[in-house]
Amino acid sequence: PGSPAGRAVGEGSPGGGGRRVFSPAGEFREFSRRQLRDMERLFRQYDAGKDGFIDLMELKLMMEKLGAPQTHLGLKNMIKEVDEDLDSKLSFREFLLIFRKAAAGELQEDSGLHALARLSEIDVSTEGVKGAKNFFEAKAQAINEASRFEEEIKAEQEEKKKQAEELKQRKAAFKELQSTFTQ
């Protein structure tokens, strides 16, 4: 629950009409867990309303603090470029799309989103979408983590079996001891 991979910011509320829960680590595999945490921290820092979204005024404040103030129209265009659900605000998923597009070189050099990605101190270019080596290393690490997770589950199951057997033996010993006193 403490990591971005375990929760969704501004996506899929409980009873939210069947919307699936957004998993940043699952959908944005081109970014490391550290990068996702950094992006989530940045998102939460500027989500002044703490509603899981960055609206126009919060984006305005963010861009001013990053030293790249935008016009009202410029801010609206920034949101429109990644606003998939057309709610005129940025969810965490849409916020991550900015960095995906930046890493893939899909943002215009003079756009507000390019400035946001460049000035946010989250360096997506070091790993980025184009880094196949990193992608496959991350994939191998995920497989290793999954097998380690399975090993931990097996160890826990073995421990539970052992504890159940010990309990069974203690109960049998207690009944035996009890029977000597009841005669």
Automatic annotation (TrEMBL):
Xref: Gene3D superfamilies: EF-hand (1.10.238.10)
Region called Disordered, residue ranges: 1-24
Single GO MF annotation: calcium ion binding
Assigned keywords, A-Z: Calcium, Coiled coil, Metal-binding, Repeat
Top-level taxonomic group: Eukaryota
Stretches with biased composition (Low complexity): 1-11
UniProt keyword annotation of Cell membrane present: no
Pfam families linked to this entry: AIF-1
Record-annotated EF-hand domain positions: 34-69, 70-105
Coiled-coil ranges (or none): 139-177
Protein name: EFHD2 protein
Organism the protein comes from: Dasyornis broadbenti (rufous bristle-bird)
